[in-house]
Amino acid sequence: MRTVELHCLIVDDSRRFLQAACRLLELQGVRVVGVASTGSEAGALVSALRPDVALVDIGLGEESGFDVADRLDGVPVIMISARDADDLVHLVEASRAIGFLSKSGLSGPAIRELLSAHRGT
Hints:
Blueprint: E1 6-11, H1 15-27, E2 30-36, H2 39-49, E3 53-57, E4 59-60, E5 63-64, H3 65-71, E6 77-81, H4 85-94, E7 99-102, H5 108-119
Parallel strand pairs: 1-2, 1-3, 3-6, 6-7
Antiparallel strand pairs: 4-5
Helix pairs in contact: 2-3
């Protein structure tokens, strides 16, 4: 069975992480259609590119990733962070995000699993 290509937007203020994540996800069949480092950039890219999912860093310098996620209408959001999930579980559950992935655990299969659970498929 052929896997449908997944289009992803990554929102993070670390250029190094963005480069590494793009390479990793592309190798795993996730097409990174855009990257953003601020909430306003992310909003414009979601409108223009219509990704299947947005990965949003919880800490975006001066901005809260949760606030950015709230403004990204029409796209499922997965929060990401280098911090431990145990520290963030209540914040993620209270947000509109469909889930959380640690940056060290970021993978195409993990993103697909969260999206599948969200869609009930």
